[in-house]
Design goal:
Blueprint (H helix, E strand, L loop, with lengths): L3 H12 L16 H17 L6 E7 L2 H12 L5 E6 L2 H10 L4 E7 L23 E4 L1 E2 L4 E2 L11 E4 L16 E5 L9 E7 L17 H6 L9 H17 L1 H22 L3 E2 L11 E6 L5 H10 L14 E4 L6 H13 L2
Parallel strand pairs: 2-3, 2-4, 4-7, 7-8
Antiparallel strand pairs: 1-9, 5-6, 8-9, 10-11, 11-12
The structure holds 4'-deoxy-4'-aminopyridoxal-5'-phosphate (PMP).
4'-deoxy-4'-aminopyridoxal-5'-phosphate binds next to α3.
Length: 345
């Protein structure tokens, strides 16, 4: 969900933005009005994530999955080794895509144990010869989240933060590159945030890399090699303004823990529901759970939907239920879900 105050602001801006007589949907991306939005957006990202001066912020078209290809295309030479940690659905897909462009090595695969935990990093089979080591900070489908940035990896870390970006403070200087699609904590779908250390821009992309996927070119063109999704950029700038007004990433983290703990505590204390994820790596953003009596699942989802509790069906890859608790979800939303779960059956 988006913060209600952002939704209200959008309704006004949609017809008459900043008393200009124009909608934000109508202005040119090259005009001064939109340029100001873009500058504001970049400044807010830099402030909120404390992005160091030697990192560039790119806002790229396509979703996170375009980066599954863009990363090996830009960062790995042909035939060069790249290391991937597979901890769930999205890292597995990222590895599958990277395999088309580089010498892919899977350094750990948690599917052997149903992706219910994350093996310690010193058990990963990493090489200091790899172009980078890739992992997914929060596995949206599986409900598994790294509790901290992996330590002791000799190559550049590349991280998919699509589903937990801006939910806690992060030390950007630990990464070569991190990226996130916009449709979770940032706003509506449409753009992908890429934060990249400047020296990596000097790596020549593989010859068939489309221009709009070249990090160096996009950096040179201020992420406007092609027409940006202006509306999404604008909505994200409003969401970042909202996050800053709430107290920034420390406040988002506190809220995320409060929401998730409330739900996990309820599930753990219940004899009707269960969550089998290792408590050390349970996601603060996506709480997966099942009914111990699986035959009740369809009725659970139907009745929840009728009660206004939407989108609780787990991803097709894993089934069960999933409560996505992104930044804008108030604690009262979780309380409502728990009341429903308690009354069900
Ligand atoms: N990575 C993660 C962690 C995701 O949650 C998602 C989308 N749910 C993706 C990648 C893919 O994003 P997109 O649909 O923007 O390609």
């Amino acid at each position: 969900m988006l913060p209600p105050s952002v939704m209200a602001r959008l309704q006004t801006d949609f017809g008459d933005w900043c008393h200009s007589g124009l909608s934000i949907m109508e202005v040119s991306h090259r005009g001064p009005e939109f340029r100001a939005v873009a500058a504001d957006l970049l400044a807010r990202f830099r402030r909120l994530l404390q992005v160091p001066a030697n990192y560039e912020i790119l806002l790229l078209p396509g979703g996170a999955q375009l980066q599954f290809a863009g990363i090996p295309m830009n960062l790995a030479g042909q035939g060069e080794r790249v290391d991937y940690a597979i901890t769930g659905h999205w890292s597995r897909l990222a590895a599958k895509e990277a395999q088309r462009y580089a010498d892919l090595r899977v350094v750990v695969d948690m599917h052997d144990t149903h992706c219910r935990g994350i093996a310690p990093v010193d058990a990963w089979d990493c090489s200091d010869q790899a172009a980078y080591c890739y992992y997914t900070d929060n596995e949206t489908v599986n409900g598994v989240e790294f509790s901290s940035i992996p330590e002791g990896i000799a190559t550049d870390l590349v991280c998919d933060m699509s589903s937990n970006i801006l939910s806690r403070p992060v030390d950007v200087s630990r990464f070569g590159l991190l990226f996130a699609c916009s449709q979770k904590n940032l706003g509506p779908a449409g753009l992908t945030l890429v934060i990249i250390r400047q020296d990596l821009l000097a790596r020549a992309p593989s010859p068939f890399t489309p221009s709009i996927m070249s990090y160096a070119l996009q950096q040179e063109k201020e992420s406007m090699k092609n027409t940006p999704v202006t509306f999404a950029w604008y909505v994200v700038s409003l969401v970042l303004e909202w996050i800053e007004a709430q107290g920034g990433l420390a406040a988002m983290d506190a809220l995320a823990k409060q929401r998730a703990n409330l739900l996990y505590d309820y599930i753990d204390s219940s004899d009707r529901y269960e969550n089998l994820i290792d408590p050390a790596v349970r996601s603060r953003m996506n709480v997966v759970f099942t009914l111990k009596d699986a035959s009740q699942q369809a009725a659970f989802l139907r009745e929840a939907d009728t009660a206004g509790l939407k989108f609780l069906k787990g991803h097709v890859a894993v089934g069960g239920m999933r409560a996505s608790l992104y930044n804008a979800m108030p604690v009262s939303g979780v309380e409502r879900l728990i009341d429903f779960m308690d009354a069900f059956g």
